[in-house]
Amino acid sequence: MKIKAKDRKPIYPYDEWKIVEESFDVETNLRDETIFAVGNGYIGMRGNFEEGYNGPDNSSVNGTYLNGFYESKPIVYGEEAYGYAEKSQTMLNVTDSKIIQLYVDGEPLDLFSGKLISYRRTLDMKEGVLTRDMTWESGTGKQVRIRIQRFACLARKHLAVISYEVTALNFDGEIVLVSALNGEVRNQVTMGDPRAGAAFAGQVLITEGKDQDGTFAALRQRTKNTRFALVCGMENQLETENTFRMEADAPEQMVRVKYTVTAHRERTIRLTKYISYHTSRDYPEEQLLALSKETLSEARQQGFDRLREEQRQFLKDFWSRSDVEIKGDLALQQSIRFNVFHLLQSVGRDGKTNIGAKGITGEGYEGHYFWDTETYIFPFFLYTNPAIGRQLLTYRYSILDKAKERARVMSQKGALYAWRTIGGEETSAYYPAGTAQYHINADIIYALKKYMHATEDLDFFIEAGAEMLFETARLWADLGDYIPRKGNRFCINEVTGPDEYTALVNNNLFTNMMAKDHLEFAYRMAQFLKEKHGQAFQSIAGKIGLQESEIAEWKRAAEHMYIPYDEELGIHPQDDSFLDRAVWNFENTPPDKYPLLLHYHPLVIYRRQVLKQADVVLALFLQGDRFTTAEKKRNYDYYEPITTHDSSLSPCIYSILAAELGYIDKAYNYFMYTARMDLDDIHDNVKDGIHTASMAGTWLSIVHGFAGFREYQGELSFHPVVPEKWEGYRFKITFKGRVIDIDVTRDAVTYTLLSGQPVTLQHFREEVSLAPGKSQTRSLKPKLEAVIFDLDGVITDTAEYHYQAWKQLADEIGVPFDREFNEQLKGIGRLESLELILSRGELQLTEAEKIALADRKNENYKQLIESISPDDLLPGILTLLKQLRENGVKIGLASASKNAPAVLEKLGITQYFDAIADASKIKKGKPDPEIFLTAADLLGVPYRNCIGIEDAEAGIAAIKEAQMTAVGVGNRETLKHADWIVDTTVELTFERLVEIKG
């Protein structure tokens, strides 16, 4: 299904490093509060105004959140069953610390009263600071200039800072600044959309105490059910040349510090507010108040300007490793930096927290952590900031005991990670799209495997990773069964894959592929530990009671894993029953009925072929080395039209595979949809929070998509392409202690090893060795590296023999056959040809009978070709073969005939061919591109550097689908889609082929 970003003007002006709002609009305030949120991975503050908000109801969500701080309550079911998730977990809106109220001669600053003369809000992603500049006039005509700067300290987990500057412009008088903490906060409650809102109505946090000491104040609060304690503290610092007095009070659930200042025109007054949050999830409850005071005292000693510089330096280091430059597209340059910046603001870096689907910018999905982390977000941090990747895995280890408990509840061995959680327990109330997604186990271990490849961090593996790996492998071995009706293959039944529009199925392809990879990795690492680190292995095995028989079973289950495949279509069914369903009626589904989940009952969706997001296609990416290019192409072409992309996780995966398969325009369109999803509010739901997985998907689409970056078994490879609208792009990869710079232009790519030991990588299929501080440049222009020939009609003319063999068979079975009909058989396989012949008669044959007839035709053909000799080479072919060999160009054969090797032998030219792809090596014949792709793979040559030569329309179509240059020999009308057509083989010269490829 094609998707297209809404055609709308940019919401925010394009800028490389800034997001700028040039006017205040109440209609878009909810969205803007998300966009201008600040965070440091622990504290998240929506872009609410310090002075408060008096706009219409439901046009603002005043939110401050702490990653990992939640309340819980029992989930109420209409009908319960054993094993259902028992309690919800909801990230709480905590103490509001953003409050700084301004009074101008007694009149409060309010954007809904007085006059807003100028307004500009800027999120600076290089500085890490949110700035709001305003000029406001009170009802009595007094004007003030205001500058407010806010940030959550990236280098200090528990600290946020606000600098509030106010200048009287046209009066002398009194200015009052009130800095406050408010404990009377509540979460947003929404109905009807399972992706938005929280589970709690009313106030959740209980205010238990207040503390005040001069400019310091704090609120002590607690959750009712989880019993987590929270202390929010503030320290205030006023800078002014004017006289002032300070007062403090504590009405209701607030603490306040009030400054009354004698104002003089053009004299700036500056209040700096230092804010801290500490909870009992991190520290003993009795220490929280002291820690708050200590954090704030140190911050005040540093002062705002030093903290701001610290923030800038932190980001300078971050961007030096994480920045992606897009040359020639300012809109996309802005969006990729915005997305990366918000990922940094959202990710937990303490090993106790993770990254929520909405980050810490809003209440969508209740702040839960999903598989999004390991599948979409983790790769970004792994290859730019691997220390953060380690902490994300450390979080998963911290909840391993909860995963083991969940497995017990589900009557399984080992560990089963929760589908959605904060504290580790399963919180998904809808098990068909929650607990049934067992692939969460494999997703986490896939991230662990990639981490080990990229860091070789054996200490982490021994301390935490191995236990995670082995316990989760136990789950797969216990979950699956060897099913006789499936040839005693290992089957995993009653699961849900990534596509949540298809639930509770048998043998989901993605799940089985990932489980196979998981089990193989577990077996391999168990053997590695036993051989190389025996003492560590014995310690781990003793701790979890691991037996040798279990390890052997992992290997057996992986080797016998059932992988669904449909021979007729040449694709992998998404599951055992997927292809037995009717396709969703897309043509008669109006645009306003998407996303389907908000307009159709799940059963209506489940009974059709329709995808919410990439499923098989995701497997093609994550397990790319287990599929041929031809398989990837057939699967992609089948699933793309029936994928709605109702999930924001989907477009980036389709972009990556489209880029790999040569569908560059499609790749770019999907990327555009992903890249500006939040900045352009494509789904109209940014109000609920950012889309962290989609943001990471932007990075994935560039690095894994357009740059073609892959890592298999610890080896790096790149296959760069440049979208037509770009001049180029640039990024860095951190791998095994090395930092590699990849700079791609339209004509070339330059690889530079910035730091670390020498490394060898693959550029397309060429090895590139890099020394420290040195660069290697490779051209991206296509060049002639291989020529792949068809046999019949190109190298020799065996068409007459084929005609006579088919004619003999047709006469024997009483089916009409002549030379005109024989033209339809050119370039296609034996069984396909037989089906065409049989379609002209009335014979009803079994598959076995058809195979017998095809074999009989082949025997006829083999007898006829006994007379072939070198004299049967078509004119000019031998000379061309010699020229190609002399110039180092590889030569391949792509023939539908299984007799091709015998024919080459009789022609006396076998020695010229480096690879032969015939019907025995492929699953689908021409016009499917598999045979040409297979030939190129056997030759070890990139498809773009191959020329295919054919005499049949189906062959030309196959070459073009393989993204190769097509040369046709023969009828110009029939071969009109070829890049070059010759009348006879005499015209095929080496010089002309080089010219065409260039």
Concise overview:
The chain has 998 residues and is α+β, with helices and mostly antiparallel strands. Helices cover 33% and strands 22% of the residues. β26 and β27 form a beta hairpin.
Write the layout of secondary structure elements.
Elements (H helix, E strand, L loop, with lengths): L17 E4 L7 H7 L2 E2 L3 E3 L18 E11 L12 E7 L6 E5 L2 E2 L6 E10 L4 E9 L5 E10 L6 E10 L4 E10 L23 E8 L2 E7 L6 E11 L4 E6 L4 E10 L4 E12 L8 H35 L2 E3 L2 H17 L25 H13 L1 H13 L1 H10 L29 H17 L2 H22 L1 E3 L5 E3 L17 H24 L1 H11 L3 H12 L22 E2 L18 H5 L1 E2 L6 H7 L6 H11 L10 H12 L2 H12 L16 H15 L3 E3 L2 E4 L9 E8 L2 E8 L2 E8 L3 E5 L2 E5 L4 E5 L6 E4 L9 H15 L5 H4 L7 H9 L8 H18 L12 H10 L3 E5 L5 H8 L7 E3 L12 H10 L6 E5 L2 H9 L3 E5 L10 E3 L7 H8 L1
Parallel strand pairs: 22-23, 25-29, 32-33, 32-35, 33-34, 35-36, 36-37
Antiparallel strand pairs: 1-8, 2-3, 3-4, 4-5, 6-7, 6-12, 8-9, 9-10, 10-11, 11-18, 12-17, 13-14, 14-15, 15-18, 16-17, 19-26, 20-21, 24-25, 26-27, 27-28, 28-31, 29-30
Helix pairs in contact: 3-17, 4-5, 4-7, 4-17, 5-7, 5-8, 7-8, 7-9, 8-9, 8-10, 8-11, 9-10, 9-11, 9-13, 13-15, 14-15, 15-16, 15-17, 16-17, 18-21, 20-21
